[in-house]
Amino acid sequence: MGENFIMDIPIVANFLQFSPANWNYKTIQMNGSCLGMMNNQCRIPRGKVMGGSSVLNYMIFTRGHKNDYDQWASNGCDGWSYDEVKPFFIKSEDNRIENDNIDSLYHRKGGYLTVSEIPFKTPIANAFLKAGAEMGYPIVDVNGAAQIGYSYLPVSMRNGTRWSTSRAFLHPIRRRRNLHVTKYTLVTKIIIDEKSKKALGVEIMKGNTKLRVFARKEVILSAGAINSPQLLMVSGIGPRDHLREKQIKVIQDLKVGYNLQDHVALGGLTFTVNDTVSIKTTRILDDPMSLDNYFKYHKGPLTIPGGAEAIAFYDLNQPGNPAGWPNLELLLIGGMLSSEETLRRNFGIRDDVYNKVYKQTETMDGYMIFPMVMRPKSFGRVFLKDSNPRHYPLIDMNYFSDPNEEDLNVLVAGVRKSQELLKSPAMRRLDAKLFPTPLPGCSNHVFDTDAYWKCHARQLSFTIYHQSGTCKMGPATDPDAVVDPQLRVHGISNLRVIDASIMPLIPSAHTNAPTIMIAEKGADMVKKAWNKR
Hints:
Blueprint: E1 25-26, E2 43-44, H1 66-74, H2 82-91, E3 93-95, E4 113-117, H3 123-134, E5 149-152, E6 154-155, E7 157-158, E8 161-162, H4 165-170, E9 185-193, E10 198-206, E11 209-214, E12 219-221, H5 224-234, E13 237-238, H6 240-245, E14 252-253, E15 265-266, E16 270-273, H7 281-285, H8 288-297, E17 308-314, E18 328-333, H9 343-347, H10 351-358, E19 365-373, E20 381-383, E21 394-396, H11 406-420, H12 425-429, E22 433-434, H13 450-459, E23 461-462, E24 495-497, H14 512-531
Parallel strand pairs: 3-4, 12-24, 13-14
Antiparallel strand pairs: 1-2, 4-6, 5-17, 7-8, 9-10, 10-11, 15-23, 16-19, 16-22, 17-18, 18-19, 20-21
Helix pairs in contact: 2-14, 11-13
């Protein structure tokens, strides 16, 4: 479907999960996570719209750390070191953040993709940054040389409205004669010559009509970390045993669907404050000035993307190193689960959990902090339900499966860092306090112990929509690799994958910016490959 102006109002990001713009995926039933969700399933929103998930997301625009990409390169992904990918981050950027922390060597103005700060900041967001500074952490440009510290969110937003990849990249070129877009169309198969192992084109369904579209040069798959592996597998490219089990003829045996990663967060960590300063939907809608301010000037609280306002990065392994490699993020939400009626449905939280714990906060003001694992040690997998491309794939996020509990330990540390901020003068002025009602599924643990918070994380396991890694990039010598460092599918000619699925390891960033970088670099590779011929 196409994007519409309602989708571009930042505060309504939550509501878009319930629109036809969402594939509305869910995980399989989980037994070590998502336990406080309906049917023990976490919801996995994915964009079914021009611009993909950049139309549903919370617009947070962070690139990651130098080590993320240097690690890719050291594992055999030639050309993907930080120094080599940095120009592709900068290439499309139109940076409109103006403050003393911006590092001009890492930014440019004038690209297609506008990056800005949110025009409106609640007193909670201001207190969060002040608290970080008062506790000794720097205020940083998280897309500059160093990431450790605190920042208001850099967002893909222009003039207070969502700046999706559709608005940024497609709208300006929509009249190009060599661009053809077909909406309401499902790609059902990649057409591959079995003898030569050459991709020839794709089969599509437009309504009830099946069509075949052939490529003069190559087929590029950009369906994302859930749909790209699904499409490869239904086309005969994937794990041999799995494809045979689904009665699919194997053309190329590759570990498609493995290596699924995400930045999982501990959800529902709530703090109350003593002032009417948090974001509440009813408060915004009851104030005619809020609506007037937005629709006339694109300012005010409607410009806050789904309530997300500020961010902090920590390296728990090197706490004193300002150039550290983040393994923990704190994401500040300027409201509570009760501040917006759809929010609990958004995450799929069961009514009994909400009613027991969060319903009592409906008359209060407060904020949430999502402690988030930035370099996860637990990996999941995307499977096929069957050979029908119209049937949703099976998604096993496999959160917290690491036997050493490293991911859970990071989240517990994130709770402690969030509590540490309560000691700061900035948070004391708001009388910020941890909301102390335990989850019913953790009643066998003493509240606020490490064991309790690990249980809490397993109950309210929040995806931050960063699914990636399922068509892993790596050299031919890597038995787990699906694409090579030129993003070409191993063993198949004229077929590339260019999206978040190629990430060998998820970077310590919200994945929208890295995915756009991959697209820029992939486009450069395609142009170079065919201009030589």
